[in-house]
Write a structure and sequence with these properties.
Length: about 500
């Protein structure tokens, strides 16, 4: 396993160890694919090595190797398919959430159990009517004395049935204002065997071979208040607490598999002959393998870069989403390419490449769909000045063209009145004919107070010289000149522009 130069000695050590461990179990994991059974004995071996505790502080029996260590272990265990998925959800079943929100007693009780891995954990957010819209859960928790009574259902729960510990989010308030502030959720740990807590159904999925994934239901399930993690109404913050880590690990678990596929493709194409040549001599085949190698290296580097940020105490919201989205896309794409390179053999289940397509497709949905990751990337990037610092195009008289400019506007310092504001807005048509200006753009160009500018724009609108775009509260958001406004502000020639080569005879 190729280490990165920023890894600590401990991380490099565990990388070597876990790779040997995964290599040793590879054949058994493959056999489980045929046995169609949950690989309990492999999971037990992972637990015996202490890998479930890789991200848990040493004081609670963990290895304390941070996000980087967790990625290293996930990358290798992911090569063992079901084992990797179970490792990921079990380790993520509230780890970050407990580290940040549990009290000392709760940490003492649950974290050593998590680190040992002898009892598996599951994360339970999704419900029949709450998928991407995770805040919309309908499972309720009502307080009765020192107990909470849970009712509802969760679905798509990885490790359903085989897990002992279920980290769930339930609704503790129905008040509209509370919901608006995301204060209606609370998180709890529910243990298997609690009366009223049942396994409802196991899904038959296109992938996640041998991993039980299903529905669970709560019928008047009573749990003590000590199983509540974090304050009442803080469930959303608890859920959000671990998301960067979770998204990263959900991506990292696929990385090692891509390397195994590269190995298979090199071997396979060195032994397959068509048109009296080994297929690895066809440039098209080489291109596909090169493409997979590039994706493997880019995805892996990105994952470990994100892990380093987490270990440095940063919150890489954008990068964690990109890691999850891009790696699962890479996996699906690499799977499709691998099948193509192997032709009909790729389509059989006798070679472990078709699985990658199915796994990759699941990767694009599980732990937040690609669309949701993109939504996060867009929203957070739009709040960062490095991406969204605002810019202005201004007319440059020397070159007689619009250019990106930081210079003050030509209208700067003019009196703030209707005539000049209309000029500012009409001039913007010359620079950006299809765009509106914000009132702040207008103010930046000519000065004056926000309220004065707004009032003048309103008056200009009443005269049909400008048209506005307003927000939901009716506040002016954007403004542009009407054709009448353009006419009133400047003569027709002001807006004209022709390239030098354009014949005067053709102008009209
Ligand atoms: C194999 C597997 C394992 C899983 N394991 C777990 C688990 O252990 N615990 C758990 O709680 N959940 C788990 N899930 C659930 C998973 O997190 C959800 O499936 C996922 O969040 C999407 O929700 P959904 O399936 O309800 O799809 P929906 O939310 O209904 O989405 C359907 C489509 O609409 C799109 N969409 C929705 N909202 C928007 C929007 N605002 N903008 C643009 N597009 C949008 C989605 O991207 C998607 O393409 C698992 C799912 C699978 C398949």
């Amino acid at each position: 396993m190729e280490p990165y130069f920023w890894w600590t000695e401990e991380q490099k050590e565990i990388a070597k160890k876990v790779e040997v461990f995964a290599d040793g179990l590879f054949e058994e994991a493959e056999a489980y694919f045929w046995k169609k059974k949950f690989p309990w004995d492999l999971v037990k071996k992972v637990a015996d090595e202490g890998y479930f505790g890789v991200g848990i502080p040493k004081q609670y029996g963990g290895l304390e190797l941070g996000a980087t260590g967790s990625c290293i272990v996930a990358e290798q265990l992911g090569r063992l398919y079901a084992v990797g998925h179970v490792f990921v959800v079990s380790m993520l079943a509230g780890l970050e959430q407990m580290l940040r929100f549990a009290n000392d007693e709760q940490k003492e009780k649950w974290l050593p159990q998590l680190a040992k891995g002898d009892k598996l954990g599951a994360v339970c957010i999704t419900e029949p009517f709450a998928g991407s819209d995770a805040a919309n859960v309908m499972t309720t928790a009502e307080k009765e004395g020192d107990e909470w009574v849970l009712n509802g259902k969760k679905r798509y729960i990885t490790g359903a049935g085989v897990s002992d510990r279920y980290f769930i989010y339930a609704k503790t308030s129905d008040e509209k204002d509370v919901k608006k502030q995301y204060g209606h959720l609370t998180s709890f740990l529910v243990e298997k065997g609690t009366p009223g807590f049942h396994l409802e159904k196991i899904n038959k999925l296109i992938g996640f071979d041998n991993v039980p994934n299903g529905y669970i239901s709560f019928d008047d399930v009573r749990i003590p208040d000590e199983n509540r993690i974090g304050p009442v109404g803080k469930g959303w913050s608890v859920m959000m607490a671990g998301l960067n880590f979770e998204r990263l690990i959900a991506g990292a678990v696929y990385v090692g598999t891509m390397k195994d596929i590269i190995n298979i493709l090199f071997w396979y194409t060195q032994h397959r002959v068509q048109f009296r040549r080994k297929t690895n001599q066809f440039p098209g085949i080489q291109n596909e393998i090169a493409d997979i190698i590039a994706k493997y290296r880019m995805g892996r580097l990105f994952a470990y870069n994100t892990a380093k940020q987490l270990d440095d105490g940063l919150e890489p919201m954008i990068d964690a989403s990109i890691a999850k989205w891009v790696i699962s896309e890479y996996i699906r794409d690499a799977g499709l390419k691998a099948v193509q390179v192997m032709g009909g053999d790729g389509l059989t289940r006798f070679y472990p490449v078709e699985r990658l397509v199915r796994e990759g497709k699941i990767g694009e949905i599980v732990a937040g769909t690609t669309e949701v990751q993109k939504m996060i990337v867009y929203r957070f990037a739009s709040m960062l000045p490095i991406y969204n610092q605002g810019m202005r195009m201004r007319w440059n008289d020397e070159v007689n063209a619009p250019v990106v400019s930081k210079k003050p506007s030509r209208f700067n310092g003019l009196e703030v009145n209707e005539e000049n504001i209309l000029k500012v807005i009409a001039h913007d048509y010359k620079v950006n004919p299809g765009l509106y200006m914000s009132p702040d753009d207008v103010r930046e160009d000519i000065g004056g107070s926000r309220s004065a500018i707004r009032k003048i724009i309103e008056r200009l609108e009443e005269q049909n010289l400008v048209v506005t775009h307003r927000d939901r509260q009716g506040k002016i958001d954007l403004v542009k000149a009407t054709y009448e406004g353009l006419k009133k502000a400047f003569p027709r020639e002001y807006y004209e522009w022709y390239p030098d080569w354009y014949a005067d005879a053709d102008k009209f």
